[in-house]
Amino acid sequence: MFPEIAIIKFIIYAVKLYMGVYNLKIRMLNSRNEINRLGEEENFIHFSFRPSDIDILEILKNCPNLKAAQIPPSYMKSLSKNVPKILKMQGVELLKGDLKGTKIIKYMEVNDQ
């Protein structure tokens, strides 16, 4: 087994345990324009762009039940230092990771099998 696959499976497992679900529904945000379309039912989001502090505040306002947010590793280096602090204060886990090979879609369901 490749180490990358093991890490991805571990992250999926950890998030499922944390959220109490077995089929993880990830809301993919492909642009800032989609932030206003988020609803209260969102628990996990993946960014396909680098969010600003204002983007994060808007997301938290629209998604009070948010449990985790995932950002590609390449964006973590240039992410505002306030973003992780804001998310942590709200109890939202910030995860580093990619959803490679996905089409531009609204949701992606991930199984660990």
Commentary on this structure:
- With 113 residues, this protein is α/β, with parallel strands linked by helices.
- The protein contains 4 helices and 5 strands; from the N terminus they run αββαβααββ.
- It has a 5-stranded mixed beta sheet.
- α2 runs parallel beside α4.
- The chain is globular and about 35 Å long.
- The two termini are 13 Å apart.
| Order of adjacent strands in the largest pleated sheet | 4-3-2-1-5
What composes the largest sheet?
5 strands, mixed
Number of strands: 5
Which range does the strand content fall in? 15-25%
Helix content: 25-40%
Counting DSSP H or I runs of 4 or more residues, the number of helices is 4
Overall pLDDT level: 80
Ends distance: 13 Å
What is Rg? 13 Å
Specify the structural class: alpha/beta
Sketch the topology as an H/E string, one letter per element. Answer: HEEHEHHEE
Unreliable spans: 102-106
